Amino acid sequence: FSQEDERTKIVEKRIEFIGESLEDSDIDFTTYLENLYFFFDNPINLNQTSFEELSKLHLLTDFQTVAILDYVRQYGKVLTIYELTAIEELDKEAIDLIVPFVTIGEARTYKTNWKNVLKYGKNEVFLRYQRDLQTREGYVPKSDSILAISPNKQYVGSPDKIYSRYRFTYKDKISWGVTAEKDAGEQFFRGAQKYGFDFYSGHLMVKDLGIVKKVVIGDFHANFGQGLTMWSGFNMGKSADVLNVKRYARGLKPYTSVNESNFMRGGGVMLQKDLKENRIDLTLFGSYKRIDANLNLNDTLFGNDAGISSFQSSGFHRTPGEIEDKNAVRQTIFGGASHFTMENLKVGITGVVTSYDAPLSLSSQTYSQFNFQGTSNYSLGANYMYFKNKMSVFGEVTTSKNKSLAMVNGVTWHADPKLDIVILHRLIDKKNQSLYSAPFGGATSNENGLYIGVKAKLSKQFNLSAYYDQFTHSWLKWSTDGPSFGREVFVQADYKINYNS
Which residues, 6+ apart, have CB-to-CB distance to 296 below 8 Å? Predict the structure, then answer.
């Protein structure tokens, strides 16, 4: 029990470190928690790791990660953890953050021993029950006359919120599990929810089957490039970690959270082939699921019986109106990505096609006249990432069915052991219609922006972080009746008290 308690404390401290940088209480930290717990139990071998693996910790900067890899390539295997102090880019704080999650030793190639999968695999069962003591307005009984006029004024279910999850994992090679959730106000084993929970999610993932690097069946995420062409799930925005503007795509990843809209449901496979010191990979995926949407009956614009006026992403099904919107539209997604990786260079292409069984209607609002309408759309993009000495350049460019253009390009520079600089430019056309786009800054269309971030270590105890971001919008936006522009300035000073002095 004491070991498990210490494990939890260590992981929670790192989550606090990440959370302070992100400054967003609504972020789903499931991915971070899973990665840190896994690497605590299965430490990363610094003598045989990769940039992608170390970046999953979210505890190091690009330059610190590259510095570790360059040190191993230049001087050979690390003999002791204390040797990390010889790496100029790693300060004591960075080393202390990663020590519980890394190890050293001989570089080895491990193959999955299928006889040991069930014997040494890890089973997790998590149950959570929640109920507010105060009675909310939606649970107060209403008269039949009121409900006849306003049927959505009363929730149809109980105030209980129930969450359950089972997951089996074997190292990072195999994972399967089932997640179920009932939100407060939703029915349970009755009415619209005759099968119990309102939301069910399941997955199966297997890795390292020869040339087949990864297979995912069930619910999953698909992330590629810098988020312009295809990115489902959590995405990073501006934060107190001013250097953290570059995306690290994970490709296919099992989905284990309870956001009921932003995920894929189907399957995917990643094939990988090593070419001496280089590597090429190919990922294919497909998704089919029903999604929540509000339908306009008798959509005369498209000559159909019904058109989609809006998508509903809250995941709540507590009232007759919300229940009516549940699973109203069928969504089909299929796509693929391919990447070629050298020592310091990674280039790739991504394509995705999305279709619905009902047309998305054009809003009557002027600001939205360039938004996607119809039943199908596609996006095609190219991305790159290159490291050289103490500089890194990265970016992505994408186009959609309507031939619009969007691009993100950036450069990070480790100018000095005490000074890091990042510059990022984004140019996203007002007609951009990439449906699963999540670029830095959050805008998926109609934005031209320039971001400059600086982080300086003025002393062992005093750090200064700052960014300046300016952006223009060439077309109208919601609640803005003309072209507009804006600026954001952020400055943060951190002083760490040394209790030993």
Answer: 306, 307, 308, 309, 361
What crossing angle do the helices spanning 30-41 and 2-22 adopt, rounded to 10°?
140
Contact 174, 206 (CB under 8 A): yes
**Token pair in block for residue 138:** 């939606």
Give the chain's residues under pLDDT 50. Answer: 1-2, 23-26, 300-302, 501
**Strand residue runs (E) in 361-497:** 374-388, 391-400, 405-416, 419-428, 447-457, 462-473, 484-495
φ, ψ of residue 5 in degrees (nearest 5): -65, -40
* Residue 187 near residue 323 (C-beta atoms within 8 A): no
Instruction: Report residue 59 as tokens.
Output: 């505890």
Distance, in Å, from the CA atom of 47 to the CA atom of 210, rounded to the nearest integer, reads 22
Q: What percent of the chain has pLDDT over 90?
A: 49
* pLDDT number for residue 302: 47
| Inter-residue contact 239 to 21 (CB < 8 Å) | yes
Alpha carbons 316 and 299: distance in angstroms, whole number:
26
Element (H, E) at 120: helix 114-120
Which residues is 457 bridged to in the sheet?
Answer: 463
Residue 118 has what pLDDT? Answer: 80
DSSP of 30-81, one letter per residue? Answer: HHHHHHHHHHHHS-EETTS--HHHHHTT--S-HHHHHHHHHHHHHH-S---G
Measured distance CA(97)–CA(39) in Å, rounded: 13
For the CA atoms of 477, 377, 348, 472, the dihedral, rounded to the nearest 10 degrees, stands at: -10
Task: Give the separation between CA 74 and CA 499, rounded to whole angstroms.
Answer: 37
335 CB contacts (<8 Å, ≥6 apart)? Answer: 222, 230, 284, 285, 286, 350, 351, 352, 353
Which is it for the CA torsion 402, 405, 406, 407, positive or negative?
positive
Contact 353, 347 (CB under 8 A): no
Rounded CA Rg of the chain = 25
Provide the terminal-to-terminal Cα distance of the chain, rounded to the nearest Å. Answer: 35
3-class state of residue 16 by DSSP: helix
Task: Write out the E strands in 227-326.
Answer: 251-254, 264-275, 278-291, 293-299, 304-311
pLDDT digits (tens, 9 = 90+) for 120-150: 888 999 999 999 999 999 999 999 899 899 9
Nearest residue to 69 (alpha-carbon basis) of 55, 80, 59, 58: 55
Residues 6+ apart with CB under 8 A from 483: 472, 473, 474, 475, 476
CA–CA gap between residue 460 and residue 455 (Å, rounded): 14
